[in-house]
Amino acid sequence: MIRALTGADLSAYRAMWLDGLRRTPDAFLLTEAEAVGMTDAQLIARLEQGTIFGAFVQDQLVGMIALSRGGPERLRHMGDLGPLYVHPSAQGRGLGRALMQVAEQAARDMGLLQVELCVDATNHGAIGLYKSCGFVQIGLRPRSVIVNGTPRDDLLMLKQLDHA
């Protein structure tokens, strides 16, 4: 089952996010220290927006994806996806694709014309998933992030929702 997360999911969401940061720090923008520093109130406010979706197996949160709409008026037609994370115990079941589809439908329901994402250039599994979901690479951001002193490049990917 996939559904929008709420403030009631705070503990499970925080645990899932921290698990992802520890296992795959290259896949997240924030560091573990930054995530730990976020207050419950900040996370609950984000969860209550209804744009973070969770995949559940037997009432256990095993995956998540976030959708963020552009803030300024001139960017309100687009959204950003990510992070997407599926716990290793639940990978290989199509949950990543299902989470992508739910987030895409939410973007359409919000009237967004396109969604974008960034992905580490070496994360071939995620890149393959995104391409199979209709995303195309629109650029490369060299040294997009520096993880443990090592610069990492990100691919910028986009899907136009009004052309599908």
UniProtKB/TrEMBL annotation:
Keywords associated with the record: Acyltransferase, Transferase
Family matches, as InterPro entries: Acyl_CoA_acyltransferase, Bact_Acetyltransf, GNAT_dom
Single GO term (MF): acyltransferase activity, transferring groups other than amino-acyl groups
Record's keyword annotation contains Endoplasmic reticulum: no
CDD domains: NAT_SF
Keyword Translocase (UniProt): no
This enzyme's EC code(s): 2.3.1.-
SUPFAM superfamilies xrefs: Acyl-CoA N-acyltransferases (Nat) (SSF55729)
Transmembrane segments: none
PROSITE patterns listed in its UniProt record: GNAT
Segments forming domain N-acetyltransferase: 1-162
Enzyme class: transferase
Name of the featured protein: N-acyltransferase YncA
Species annotation: Pelagimonas phthalicica
Gene: yncA
